[in-house]
Design goal:
With about 325 residues, this protein is an alpha/beta fold. Helix content is about 35%, strand content about 15%. A 5-stranded parallel beta sheet has the order 7-6-5-8-9. Helix 2 links the parallel strand 1 and strand 2. Helix 1 crosses helix 5, helix 2 packs across helix 11 and helix 5 packs across helix 11. The chain is globular, with a radius of gyration of 19 Å. Bound molecules: phosphoric acid mono(formamide)ester. The site of phosphoric acid mono(formamide)ester has 10 residues, from helix 2. Phosphoric acid mono(formamide)ester binds next to helix 2.
């Protein structure tokens, strides 16, 4: 799959995963996002680099942040946006996703933003696209590349760099596409350690996360880290969810102020959302001075602008 997203000349053709993307491409996307953010915040008009282009949002799974920020990103750069309504579409009459894509491409859609519960669906559509580009907005537990990018941008904002950082990701790692894309991005940018932590049933196979440590002991994993990324339990992707003892889970894996004190004093607290307060994170930490959760949300718009502009060669 990493090859499918590159054109013959080595440029980015689709954005499907951060795996194998490489440091220079990731840095270039982050730099572009930061430049767009600076323009937007200065009040300067943004370059209408997506004028006359059409971005189609194909979300087969629920989303608040990703879908809205892709739409805002596209519109602010001058694109038209189609929010494809799955429920009232002909996919409900048996039309394949490939035929849906070909139909929208025939209407001159230039970019497809795809979220789907099955791993590999955006890649499948990318392989089928004639001219349009495909951006993965989250597929199963495989990848969520723009979430990875916005997390890297947020870390870089606060730490100045990602090289050498110690980062812990805690929660349901096994079913998380965010954890996979974060780990790919952190590895590419030279993080010193990527510590994965959670209860045994929610931990991944080590082979799925090269160069990461895996542990069930959150307190130990927090020691001296620069950033804490908390994840919710991905109930929608767990076939047989064991009875969740919420208090027990919070007791062992909930991020409280007392626990956070084990991290560096300037550690940032991140969460891709949606958050489950009182399960994986205490409200006072979610809203506290070390939380950068809403900065992550804001950065999502700018990394999605950068990705759309890069893929559409503008
Ligand atoms: N982080 C994230 O993907 O959030 P949404 O599901 O709201 O898009």
């Amino acid at each position: 799959m990493p090859d499918l997203q590159l054109a013959a000349d080595g440029r980015l053709r689709h954005l499907l995963t951060l795996e194998g993307l490489g440091r220079s491409r990731i840095d270039a996307l982050l730099d572009r996002a930061a430049a767009l953010r600076a323009s937007w915040r200065s009040g300067a008009p943004l370059p209408p680099v997506l004028e006359r282009l059409t971005v189609a949002n194909l979300f087969f799974e629920a989303s608040t942040r990703t879908r809205t920020s892709f739409e805002l990103a596209a519109r602010r750069l001058g694109a038209q946006v189609v929010n494809f309504d799955i429920a009232s579409s002909s996919t409900s009459k048996g039309e394949t996703l490939e035929d849906t894509l070909a139909t929208l491409e025939a209407m001159d859609a230039d970019a497809f933003v795809v979220r789907h519960r099955e791993n590999g669906t955006p890649a499948r559509l990318a392989a089928h696209a004639r001219r349009a580009v495909v951006l993965n907005a989250g597929d199963g537990n495989h990848a969520h590349p723009t979430q990875g990018l916005l997390d890297l941008l947020t870390l870089r904002d606060h730490k100045g760099h990602v090289d050498g950082l110690d980062v812990v990701i805690c929660g349901d790692i096994r079913h998380s596409r965010v954890a996979r894309s974060d780990a790919d991005g952190l590895r590419a940018l030279g993080a010193a350690s990527i510590r994965l932590c959670g209860p045994r049933d929610l931990l991944p196979a080590a082979a799925d996360f090269p160069d990461c440590s895996i542990s069930e002991d959150f307190d130990a994993a927090l020691d001296g880290v620069d950033a804490v990324i908390m994840l919710r339990i991905q109930k929608e992707r767990i076939e047989h969810l064991p009875d969740l003892d919420q208090d027990g889970y919070f007791g062992r894996y909930g991020l409280t102020a007392a626990r956070l004190a084990r991290a560096r004093p300037d550690a940032v607290v991140m969460h891709p959302g949606p958050m489950n307060r009182g399960i994986e994170i205490a409200s006072d930490v979610a809203d506290g001075p070390q939380s950068v959760v809403l900065e992550q949300v804001a950065n999502g718009i700018f990394v999605r602008m950068a990705a759309l502009a890069e893929l559409l060669r503008r």
